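Progress report, Aim 2. The chain analyzed during this reporting quarter is listed below.
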Amino acid sequence: MPQPTKKQWADVAKKLDRLYDTVFFRCDGYLVQAVLGRISNNGIAIAIYVNGLAAVHEWVDGKDEEPRRFWRPITRSSFKQRYIKEMERIVGKDECEKQGLYNKETTYNPSWLRPWPFIRHLIKHNESIEIIDYETYRKEAGLPTEKENVE
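Predicted structure tokens for the chain:
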């Protein structure tokens, strides 16, 4: 399956810079929807929907496949730097290493702040990527047509 071209990726990035524009993908069997929208009173971000789901609480820790493929990874230290420095002074660096004070935690956020980091992450973590239109997305997701909604 051919990957999108550089021009197609540029078009996707341009669409994801406009408020409420939506882009649909088929990535390795997953249906992905990306839309730039409001996430708080004063903030906007690119929200990612995987197979129609925005954010599933169990996905945040990254044990499932979906967040690692599509969501923004956030890596932080398990302990504050101030605490680590204090413990190094008290017990030494070797003991801090044994206790796991230098460990990092990774959580996943279902939104991206800019389009190009999202696109690079999508390319890196998915072998087959196809940009699809809304009608194709609607049919594959099993969403009703506008006529079916009226009736």
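The helical segments are 6-15, 65-70, 81-91, 93-99, 115-125, 134-141, 146-150. The mean pLDDT is 87. These observations will guide the mutagenesis work planned for the next reporting period.
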